[in-house]
């Protein structure tokens, strides 16, 4: 099968398309024929091994000290179940699915555990659209619902609102009952407004100093503001949520947890099949729209990584795979 591989950490040009054996599903696995996948900010980070110094060693130990231990790249996928292991009960060959794997989605075939983040794909969405939802959707859901613990009526600000996570956060924030404001570049203002943000500001001219005490939750997907500066924007029990953070972010989180009041919170997104089914239901009801920057063939993976590295992606960048003969 064709698969994108990353056999050392480095720039986009190190990626290769290789011909590899098709993976074999275990008893509790699905074999998925991947129709669409994406290049996420997470894929680009792992390829380039861009991470704060604090996480360098733990992350290298987890994914490969000298080179990626599992070379096939890619997390998000949509496609069709080709075969299932003997112990699988919830899926059958022919089911359309979408999901988020840890690696291996940039390939014609992928095996995923039945119990992992895989669910029936949303009816009415194409594979390209379905593949655009899991990474941004699960990240936004976990950060808003579980980490920020947003409640209806709260005022929320999304910084970096046009990216994969930001575009889902604007929509999920509305769904969770928040009043959503957003900051993005001028070219993305109309898009972000169409997703449900009531006030959208151009990040080139945005003046945070004029919004003191305004927000219950600030979701900073862009690593745009240092906590000291953004603290004044928070309401008395407001939470400043950092998606990208290092030692300083963790220090802020620990310090602000010591007494009641404004807090900095950081964490890592996870999410499983139940969360994915929640996103699917929203997508089927038209309340979570996929935002797609561009669609490229798998062979353009280097170009795709260069675009993600530039940091200006709108929603998801989708890669498509030709149907496998037979
Ligand atoms: N902790 C976790 O578990 C977790 C999970 C998922 C993602 N993340 C992190 O979250 C971040 C966002 O991920 P993503 O997938 O949404 O990224 P993405 O799709 O590449 O989008 C990034 C967005 O950031 C905006 N941006 C770039 N520079 C900015 C700046 N200086 N100020 C404000 N906005 C800026 C860009 O929009 P404009 O051009 O409109 O400004 C772009 O749309 C990444 O750093 C990723 O690693 C963390």
UniProtKB/TrEMBL annotation:
SMART domains: PKS_ER. SUPFAM superfamilies: GroES-like, NAD(P)-binding Rossmann-fold domains. Pfam families: ADH_N, ADH_zinc_N_2. Keywords: Membrane, Transmembrane, Transmembrane helix. The chain crosses the membrane at residues 241-259. Gene3D superfamilies: Medium-chain alcohol dehydrogenases, catalytic domain, NAD(P)-binding Rossmann-like Domain. GO terms for molecular function: oxidoreductase activity. It comes from the Bacteria. Residues 10-319 form the Enoyl reductase (ER) domain. PANTHER family: ALCOHOL DEHYDROGENASE RELATED, RETICULON-4-INTERACTING PROTEIN 1, MITOCHONDRIAL. This is NADPH:quinone reductase. The lineage of its organism: Bacteria, Pseudomonadati, Pseudomonadota, Alphaproteobacteria, Acetobacterales.
């Amino acid at each position: 099968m064709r698969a994108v591989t990353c056999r050392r950490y480095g720039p986009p040009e190190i990626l290769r398309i290789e011909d590899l054996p098709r993976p074999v599903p275990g008893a509790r696995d699905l074999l998925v024929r991947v129709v669409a996948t994406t290049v996420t900010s997470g894929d680009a980070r792992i390829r380039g091994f861009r991470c704060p110094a604090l996480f360098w060693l733990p992350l290298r130990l987890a994914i490969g000290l000298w080179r990626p231990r599992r070379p096939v790249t890619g997390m998000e996928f949509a496609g069709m179940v080709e075969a299932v292991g003997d112990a699988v009960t919830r899926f059958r060959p022919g089911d359309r699915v979408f999901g988020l794997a840890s690696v291996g989605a940039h390939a014609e075939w992928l095996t995923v555990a039945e119990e992992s983040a895989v669910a029936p794909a949303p009816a009415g969405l194409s594979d390209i659209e379905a593949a655009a939802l899991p990474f941004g959707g699960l990240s936004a859901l976990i950060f808003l619902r579980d980490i920020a613990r947003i409640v209806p009526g709260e005022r929320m600000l999304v910084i970096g609102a046009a990216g994969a996570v930001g575009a889902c956060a604007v929509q999920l924030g509305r769904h969770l009952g928040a009043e959503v404001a957003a900051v993005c570049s001028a070219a993305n203002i109309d898009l972000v407004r169409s997703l449900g943000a009531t006030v959208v500001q151009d990040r080139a001219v945005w003046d945070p100093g004029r919004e003191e005490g305004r927000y219950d939750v600030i979701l900073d997907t862009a690593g745009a503001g240092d906590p000291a500066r953004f603290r004044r924007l928070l309401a008395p029990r407001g939470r400043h949520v950092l998606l990208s953070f290092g030692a300083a972010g963790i220090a802020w989180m620990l310090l602000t947890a010591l007494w009641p009041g404004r807090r900095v919170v950081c964490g890592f997104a996870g999410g499983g099949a139940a969360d994915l089914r929640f996103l699917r239901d929203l997508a089927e009801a038209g309340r979570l729209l996929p935002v797609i920057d561009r669609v490229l063939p798998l062979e353009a993976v280097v170009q795709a990584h260069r675009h993600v590295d530039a940091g200006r992606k709108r929603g998801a960048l989708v890669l498509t795979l030709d149907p496998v003969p037979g």
